[in-house]
């Protein structure tokens, strides 16, 4: 099979997944967007968290041109992408009990805020405890996960529950367990993951919905512009000054 044909198959698989989440998750996307808009309008703060490669989609909505300036990254040292050596340490930290509580105890997050938690499997202790503890603080939680893991794998949290069990809104990425879209007889393992593509698209759909929801109620969405267009820095400076008490990545 040619490399070009494999590339085409991956694009087809990713497009198919995007169409599924567009059609099947429309109600959840609307609910998540409204939740974020409500939080902004009510004076709350926005945060996003993801561990490992799930952090990529979380980072994609923070300090992003065309995105909400109020979205802050809730960073957990050692689990943001592959920022530690060995990279396997990050995976191990996701299974450590109590880490989420320690992070939330020291983060500027509390009642009335909203937290987006991205975890493909939703089975590890860190995302489960992050959702549990955040809701106990009065934080509203949006979970972005593959619900299939809850029926095909076992939870690694003591409660036996998954991220999806502790959210105000759940967005199902529809990614199959194992996160690999292609197989070949000549290749011993499945390959070509699409979770980042789909999860990032889901979150951008939520951000678009939130911006529209704010505009509908007469609130200017606190959006950032690209610093590479004329006037972008001045625009962003105004937004950051107006919302400086709710933006933490600039401190």
Automatic annotation (TrEMBL):
<dbReference type="Pfam" id="PF13580">
    <property type="entry name" value="SIS_2"/>
</dbReference>
<dbReference type="InterPro" id="IPR022951">
    <property type="entry name" value="UPF0309"/>
</dbReference>
<feature type="domain" description="SIS">
    <location>
        <begin position="36"/>
        <end position="216"/>
    </location>
</feature>
<protein>
    <recommendedName>
        <fullName>UPF0309 protein E4U91_15415</fullName>
    </recommendedName>
</protein>
<dbReference type="InterPro" id="IPR001347">
    <property type="entry name" value="SIS_dom"/>
</dbReference>
<dbReference type="GO" id="GO:1901135">
    <property type="term" value="P:carbohydrate derivative metabolic process"/>
</dbReference>
<dbReference type="InterPro" id="IPR035472">
    <property type="entry name" value="RpiR-like_SIS"/>
</dbReference>
<dbReference type="InterPro" id="IPR050099">
    <property type="entry name" value="SIS_GmhA/DiaA_subfam"/>
</dbReference>
<dbReference type="InterPro" id="IPR046348">
    <property type="entry name" value="SIS_dom_sf"/>
</dbReference>
<dbReference type="GO" id="GO:0097367">
    <property type="term" value="F:carbohydrate derivative binding"/>
</dbReference>
<comment type="similarity">
    <text>Belongs to the UPF0309 family.</text>
</comment>
């Amino acid at each position: 099979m040619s490399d070009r044909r494999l590339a085409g198959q991956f694009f087809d698989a990713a497009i198919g997944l995007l169409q599924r989440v567009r059609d099947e998750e429309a109600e959840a996307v609307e609910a998540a967007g409204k939740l974020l808009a409500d939080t902004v309008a009510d004076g709350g703060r926005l945060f996003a968290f993801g561990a490992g490669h799930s952090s990529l989609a979380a980072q994609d909505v923070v300090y992003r041109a065309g995105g909400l300036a109020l979205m802050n990254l809730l960073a957990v040292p050692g689990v943001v992408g592959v920022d530690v050596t060995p990279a396997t340490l990050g995976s191990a930290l996701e299974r450590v009990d109590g880490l989420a509580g320690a992070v939330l105890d020291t983060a500027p997050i509390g009642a009335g805020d909203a937290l987006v938690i991205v975890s493909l499997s939703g089975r590890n202790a860190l995302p489960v405890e992050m959702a549990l503890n955040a809701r106990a603080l009065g934080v509203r939680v949006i979970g972005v996960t593959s619900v299939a893991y809850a029926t095909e794998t076992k939870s690694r949290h003591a409660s036996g529950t998954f991220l999806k069990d502790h959210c105000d809104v759940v967005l199902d990425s529809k990614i199959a367990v194992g996160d690999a879209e292609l197989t070949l007889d000549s290749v011993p393992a499945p390959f070509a993951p699409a979770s980042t593509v789909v999860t990032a698209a889901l979150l951008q759909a939520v951000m678009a919905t939130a911006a529209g929801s704010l505009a509908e109620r007469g609130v200017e969405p606190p959006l950032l512009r690209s610093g590479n267009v004329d006037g972008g820095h001045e625009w962003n400076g105004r937004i950051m000054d107006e919302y400086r008490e709710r933006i933490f990545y600039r401190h």
